[in-house]
Amino acid sequence: MRAFFILRTRRIFMKQLPEWAITYLHRMRLEPQEPDFPFLQAICRAHMQVFPYENVSKLIFFEQKSSDKLVPTPEEYVANAVRYDMGGTCFANNGSLLALLRALGYQGHLMPLSPTHMAILIRDLLPNDEPVYVDMGAAAPVFAPVALHSAAEQEIAFGFESVRIVRDPVQPERFRFLRFRRGELVSDRWNFDPSEAKEIHDFSESVALTFQPDATYMGCLRVQLYQLDRGRSLSLLNNSLQIMLENGTEEKILLHSLDEIEAVAAEEFGLPRLPVREAISILQNKGIDVFAPKD
Protein backbone atom coordinates (compact mmCIF):
# COMPACT_ATOMS: atom_id res chain seq x y z
CA MET A 1 0.00 0.00 0.00
CA ARG A 2 2.84 2.42 0.92
CA ALA A 3 4.65 1.70 -2.39
CA PHE A 4 1.40 2.40 -4.27
CA PHE A 5 0.98 5.70 -2.39
CA ILE A 6 4.56 6.78 -3.23
CA LEU A 7 4.09 5.88 -6.91
CA ARG A 8 0.77 7.73 -7.04
CA THR A 9 2.33 10.79 -5.35
CA ARG A 10 5.16 10.85 -7.87
CA ARG A 11 2.72 10.61 -10.78
CA ILE A 12 0.71 13.54 -9.41
CA PHE A 13 3.94 15.52 -8.86
CA MET A 14 5.13 14.78 -12.40
CA LYS A 15 1.86 16.11 -13.83
CA GLN A 16 2.62 19.41 -12.08
CA LEU A 17 6.17 19.65 -13.48
CA PRO A 18 6.83 21.28 -16.85
CA GLU A 19 7.92 18.91 -19.59
CA TRP A 20 11.49 20.21 -19.60
CA ALA A 21 11.82 19.47 -15.86
CA ILE A 22 10.58 15.90 -16.31
CA THR A 23 13.07 15.39 -19.16
CA TYR A 24 15.81 16.99 -17.03
CA LEU A 25 15.20 14.50 -14.22
CA HIS A 26 14.91 11.52 -16.54
CA ARG A 27 18.23 12.41 -18.16
CA MET A 28 19.77 12.02 -14.70
CA ARG A 29 17.77 8.80 -14.21
CA LEU A 30 15.88 10.34 -11.31
CA GLU A 31 12.22 10.48 -10.40
CA PRO A 32 10.65 13.45 -8.58
CA GLN A 33 10.68 13.24 -4.80
CA GLU A 34 10.02 15.47 -1.85
CA PRO A 35 12.51 18.41 -1.84
CA ASP A 36 14.74 17.28 1.02
CA PHE A 37 18.51 17.18 1.55
CA PRO A 38 19.06 13.54 0.48
CA PHE A 39 17.27 14.19 -2.83
CA LEU A 40 19.40 17.30 -3.34
CA GLN A 41 22.48 15.14 -2.78
CA ALA A 42 21.26 12.67 -5.39
CA ILE A 43 20.58 15.46 -7.89
CA CYS A 44 24.04 16.99 -7.46
CA ARG A 45 25.82 13.66 -7.81
CA ALA A 46 23.83 12.73 -10.92
CA HIS A 47 24.14 16.18 -12.50
CA MET A 48 27.92 16.17 -12.23
CA GLN A 49 28.05 12.86 -14.12
CA VAL A 50 25.49 13.62 -16.85
CA PHE A 51 25.86 17.30 -17.76
CA PRO A 52 29.46 18.11 -18.69
CA TYR A 53 31.30 21.27 -17.80
CA GLU A 54 32.13 22.40 -21.34
CA ASN A 55 32.56 25.40 -23.59
CA VAL A 56 31.52 23.68 -26.84
CA SER A 57 27.98 24.96 -26.35
CA LYS A 58 29.32 28.38 -25.39
CA LEU A 59 31.29 28.74 -28.63
CA ILE A 60 28.40 27.51 -30.78
CA PHE A 61 25.75 29.49 -28.89
CA PHE A 62 27.76 32.68 -29.34
CA GLU A 63 28.31 31.95 -33.03
CA GLN A 64 24.59 31.46 -33.63
CA LYS A 65 23.12 34.20 -31.45
CA SER A 66 22.99 37.80 -32.65
CA SER A 67 21.18 39.15 -29.57
CA ASP A 68 22.48 39.77 -26.07
CA LYS A 69 20.75 36.64 -24.75
CA LEU A 70 23.75 34.36 -24.35
CA VAL A 71 22.54 32.01 -21.59
CA PRO A 72 20.13 29.23 -22.61
CA THR A 73 16.75 29.03 -20.94
CA PRO A 74 16.09 25.82 -18.96
CA GLU A 75 14.04 24.56 -21.90
CA GLU A 76 16.92 25.24 -24.30
CA TYR A 77 19.44 23.75 -21.88
CA VAL A 78 17.56 20.46 -21.65
CA ALA A 79 16.88 20.35 -25.39
CA ASN A 80 20.59 20.93 -26.10
CA ALA A 81 21.49 18.15 -23.68
CA VAL A 82 19.13 15.68 -25.34
CA ARG A 83 20.09 16.60 -28.89
CA TYR A 84 23.79 17.44 -28.51
CA ASP A 85 24.95 15.99 -25.12
CA MET A 86 25.69 19.55 -23.97
CA GLY A 87 26.01 20.98 -20.49
CA GLY A 88 27.73 24.33 -20.11
CA THR A 89 29.78 26.51 -17.81
CA CYS A 90 28.52 28.01 -14.55
CA PHE A 91 25.85 30.31 -16.00
CA ALA A 92 24.13 27.58 -18.01
CA ASN A 93 24.63 24.71 -15.55
CA ASN A 94 23.75 26.57 -12.35
CA GLY A 95 21.06 28.77 -13.90
CA SER A 96 19.15 25.80 -15.29
CA LEU A 97 19.70 23.65 -12.21
CA LEU A 98 18.21 26.35 -9.98
CA ALA A 99 15.16 26.47 -12.25
CA LEU A 100 14.78 22.70 -11.86
CA LEU A 101 15.22 22.85 -8.08
CA ARG A 102 12.57 25.54 -7.81
CA ALA A 103 10.19 23.47 -9.94
CA LEU A 104 10.75 20.60 -7.50
CA GLY A 105 9.89 22.80 -4.51
CA TYR A 106 13.30 23.95 -3.27
CA GLN A 107 13.82 27.57 -2.24
CA GLY A 108 16.97 29.28 -3.41
CA HIS A 109 18.77 31.94 -5.40
CA LEU A 110 21.93 32.57 -7.38
CA MET A 111 24.88 34.46 -5.91
CA PRO A 112 28.14 35.84 -7.34
CA LEU A 113 31.57 34.52 -6.31
CA SER A 114 33.64 36.53 -8.77
CA PRO A 115 33.06 38.77 -11.80
CA THR A 116 32.66 35.62 -13.94
CA HIS A 117 31.37 32.91 -11.59
CA MET A 118 28.14 32.28 -9.74
CA ALA A 119 26.64 29.44 -7.72
CA ILE A 120 23.37 28.41 -6.05
CA LEU A 121 22.29 28.99 -2.46
CA ILE A 122 19.46 26.78 -1.15
CA ARG A 123 17.60 27.99 1.94
CA ASP A 124 14.73 26.80 4.18
CA LEU A 125 15.91 23.20 3.85
CA LEU A 126 17.92 22.33 6.97
CA PRO A 127 17.26 22.98 10.69
CA ASN A 128 17.89 26.55 11.84
CA ASP A 129 17.71 27.60 8.17
CA GLU A 130 21.29 26.52 7.58
CA PRO A 131 22.17 27.68 4.04
CA VAL A 132 23.32 25.08 1.51
CA TYR A 133 25.86 25.72 -1.28
CA VAL A 134 25.38 24.03 -4.68
CA ASP A 135 27.70 24.49 -7.66
CA MET A 136 27.67 22.51 -10.91
CA GLY A 137 29.87 25.03 -12.72
CA ALA A 138 33.12 25.18 -10.78
CA ALA A 139 35.08 22.54 -12.74
CA ALA A 140 35.88 21.15 -9.29
CA PRO A 141 34.69 18.14 -7.28
CA VAL A 142 31.64 19.84 -5.76
CA PHE A 143 29.44 16.82 -6.43
CA ALA A 144 27.56 17.22 -3.15
CA PRO A 145 25.67 20.13 -1.58
CA VAL A 146 27.59 21.84 1.23
CA ALA A 147 25.83 22.87 4.46
CA LEU A 148 27.63 26.12 5.25
CA HIS A 149 27.50 26.22 9.06
CA SER A 150 29.56 23.03 9.20
CA ALA A 151 31.42 23.64 5.93
CA ALA A 152 34.78 24.21 7.62
CA GLU A 153 34.71 20.60 8.79
CA GLN A 154 34.02 19.27 5.28
CA GLU A 155 36.33 18.62 2.40
CA ILE A 156 35.01 17.38 -0.91
CA ALA A 157 37.78 15.54 -2.70
CA PHE A 158 38.38 13.49 -5.80
CA GLY A 159 41.81 12.19 -6.68
CA PHE A 160 44.34 14.87 -5.77
CA GLU A 161 41.85 17.74 -6.10
CA SER A 162 39.71 18.99 -3.23
CA VAL A 163 37.50 21.89 -2.20
CA ARG A 164 36.76 23.47 1.16
CA ILE A 165 34.33 26.29 1.87
CA VAL A 166 35.21 28.30 4.96
CA ARG A 167 34.17 31.53 6.64
CA ASP A 168 36.21 34.55 5.68
CA PRO A 169 38.32 35.44 8.75
CA VAL A 170 38.02 39.18 8.06
CA GLN A 171 34.38 39.31 6.91
CA PRO A 172 32.61 36.48 8.82
CA GLU A 173 29.35 37.02 6.93
CA ARG A 174 31.17 35.87 3.79
CA PHE A 175 32.60 32.49 2.80
CA ARG A 176 35.67 31.58 0.74
CA PHE A 177 35.88 28.82 -1.86
CA LEU A 178 39.28 27.14 -1.48
CA ARG A 179 40.81 24.83 -4.11
CA PHE A 180 43.56 22.37 -3.26
CA ARG A 181 45.74 20.15 -5.43
CA ARG A 182 47.76 17.47 -3.68
CA GLY A 183 47.07 19.22 -0.39
CA GLU A 184 48.36 22.62 -1.56
CA LEU A 185 46.10 25.65 -1.75
CA VAL A 186 45.99 26.75 -5.40
CA SER A 187 43.15 29.31 -5.34
CA ASP A 188 41.22 31.27 -2.73
CA ARG A 189 39.99 34.14 -4.90
CA TRP A 190 36.29 33.17 -4.96
CA ASN A 191 34.14 34.38 -2.08
CA PHE A 192 30.45 35.00 -1.48
CA ASP A 193 27.76 36.30 0.83
CA PRO A 194 24.93 33.71 1.12
CA SER A 195 22.37 36.47 1.52
CA GLU A 196 23.29 38.20 -1.77
CA ALA A 197 20.31 36.94 -3.75
CA LYS A 198 20.46 37.27 -7.53
CA GLU A 199 18.55 36.01 -10.56
CA ILE A 200 20.06 34.94 -13.88
CA HIS A 201 19.27 38.29 -15.53
CA ASP A 202 21.38 40.05 -12.89
CA PHE A 203 24.47 38.42 -14.41
CA SER A 204 24.18 39.93 -17.89
CA GLU A 205 27.39 41.95 -17.47
CA SER A 206 29.24 38.94 -16.05
CA VAL A 207 28.06 36.75 -18.92
CA ALA A 208 29.16 39.37 -21.44
CA LEU A 209 32.66 39.31 -19.92
CA THR A 210 32.95 35.58 -20.62
CA PHE A 211 32.22 36.19 -24.32
CA GLN A 212 34.95 38.77 -24.83
CA PRO A 213 37.55 37.73 -27.46
CA ASP A 214 40.25 37.34 -24.79
CA ALA A 215 38.02 35.48 -22.31
CA THR A 216 39.35 32.09 -21.21
CA TYR A 217 36.68 29.91 -22.78
CA MET A 218 36.54 31.79 -26.05
CA GLY A 219 40.09 30.70 -26.85
CA CYS A 220 40.26 26.97 -26.16
CA LEU A 221 38.37 23.68 -26.22
CA ARG A 222 37.30 22.52 -22.75
CA VAL A 223 35.26 19.51 -21.64
CA GLN A 224 35.19 18.02 -18.13
CA LEU A 225 33.06 15.25 -16.66
CA TYR A 226 33.13 13.31 -13.41
CA GLN A 227 32.37 9.62 -13.79
CA LEU A 228 32.01 8.87 -10.09
CA ASP A 229 30.46 5.46 -10.65
CA ARG A 230 33.58 4.49 -12.61
CA GLY A 231 35.94 6.10 -10.10
CA ARG A 232 37.44 8.63 -12.49
CA SER A 233 37.23 12.14 -13.90
CA LEU A 234 37.97 13.24 -17.45
CA SER A 235 39.30 16.61 -18.53
CA LEU A 236 39.94 17.69 -22.12
CA LEU A 237 41.81 20.94 -22.74
CA ASN A 238 42.38 21.48 -26.45
CA ASN A 239 44.04 18.23 -27.57
CA SER A 240 45.22 17.12 -24.12
CA LEU A 241 43.16 14.51 -22.28
CA GLN A 242 43.65 14.00 -18.55
CA ILE A 243 42.20 10.92 -16.86
CA MET A 244 42.33 11.06 -13.06
CA LEU A 245 41.35 8.10 -10.91
CA GLU A 246 39.81 8.32 -7.47
CA ASN A 247 43.09 7.19 -5.88
CA GLY A 248 44.93 10.14 -7.46
CA THR A 249 46.54 8.23 -10.31
CA GLU A 250 46.74 10.44 -13.40
CA GLU A 251 47.19 9.70 -17.09
CA LYS A 252 47.69 12.33 -19.79
CA ILE A 253 47.10 11.56 -23.48
CA LEU A 254 47.91 13.90 -26.37
CA LEU A 255 45.41 13.71 -29.23
CA HIS A 256 46.59 14.36 -32.78
CA SER A 257 43.49 14.73 -34.94
CA LEU A 258 39.85 15.81 -35.04
CA ASP A 259 38.87 12.17 -35.37
CA GLU A 260 40.71 11.31 -32.14
CA ILE A 261 39.02 14.16 -30.26
CA GLU A 262 35.60 13.08 -31.54
CA ALA A 263 36.36 9.48 -30.56
CA VAL A 264 37.38 10.53 -27.04
CA ALA A 265 34.20 12.60 -26.66
CA ALA A 266 32.09 9.64 -27.75
CA GLU A 267 33.91 6.67 -26.20
CA GLU A 268 35.52 8.07 -23.06
CA PHE A 269 33.18 10.89 -22.08
CA GLY A 270 30.08 9.10 -23.41
CA LEU A 271 29.04 12.25 -25.30
CA PRO A 272 28.79 11.07 -28.93
CA ARG A 273 26.61 13.98 -30.03
CA LEU A 274 28.75 16.75 -28.53
CA PRO A 275 29.77 18.86 -31.57
CA VAL A 276 33.46 19.20 -30.78
CA ARG A 277 34.35 19.35 -34.48
CA GLU A 278 32.16 22.42 -34.96
CA ALA A 279 33.66 24.07 -31.87
CA ILE A 280 37.18 23.45 -33.14
CA SER A 281 36.19 24.95 -36.51
CA ILE A 282 34.95 28.09 -34.74
CA LEU A 283 38.26 28.33 -32.87
CA GLN A 284 40.20 27.86 -36.10
CA ASN A 285 38.24 30.72 -37.68
CA LYS A 286 39.39 32.85 -34.74
CA GLY A 287 42.99 31.87 -35.46
CA ILE A 288 43.26 29.38 -32.59
CA ASP A 289 44.87 25.99 -33.27
CA VAL A 290 43.96 23.43 -30.61
CA PHE A 291 46.78 21.20 -31.86
CA ALA A 292 49.48 23.86 -31.55
CA PRO A 293 52.50 22.64 -29.52
CA LYS A 294 52.52 23.86 -25.93
CA ASP A 295 55.41 26.00 -24.78
Written overview of the protein:
With 295 residues, the chain is an alpha+beta fold. The chain has a domain at 214-285: Arylamine N-acetyltransferase (Arylamine N-acetyltransferase fold). Helices cover 34% and strands 24% of the residues. The protein contains nine helices and 13 strands. It has helices spanning 2-16, 19-27, 37-50, 56-64, 74-84, 90-104, 204-210, 258-267, 276-285, and strands at residues 53-54, 107-114, 117-123, 132-134, 146-147, 156-158, 161-167, 175-181, 184-192, 222-227, 232-237, 240-245, 250-254. The strands form three sheets. A five-stranded antiparallel sheet has the order 1-10-11-12-13. A four-stranded antiparallel sheet has the order 2-3-4-5, covered by helices on one side. Strands 6-7-8-9 form a four-stranded antiparallel sheet, with no helix packed on it. A hairpin with a 4-residue loop joins strand 12 (240-245) and strand 13 (250-254). Helix 2 packs across helix 5 (74-84), helix 4 packs across helix 9 (276-285) and helix 5 (74-84) crosses helix 6. The longest helix is centred in the first third of the chain and has 15 residues, at 2-16. It is globular and about 55 Å long. The N and C termini lie far apart (66 Å). 36% of the residues are buried. The model is unreliable at 1-9 (pLDDT under 50).
Helices and strands, with pairings:
Elements: H1 2-16, H2 19-27, H3 37-50, E1 53-54, H4 56-64, H5 74-84, H6 90-104, E2 107-114, E3 117-123, E4 132-134, E5 146-147, E6 156-158, E7 161-167, E8 175-181, E9 184-192, H7 204-210, E10 222-227, E11 232-237, E12 240-245, E13 250-254, H8 258-267, H9 276-285
Antiparallel strand pairs: 1-10, 2-3, 3-4, 4-5, 6-7, 7-8, 8-9, 10-11, 11-12, 12-13
GO molecular function: acetyltransferase activity
InterPro entries: Arylamine_N-AcTrfase (IPR001447), Arylamine_NAT_domain_sf (IPR053710), Papain-like_cys_pep_sf (IPR038765)
Pfam family, one: Acetyltransf_2
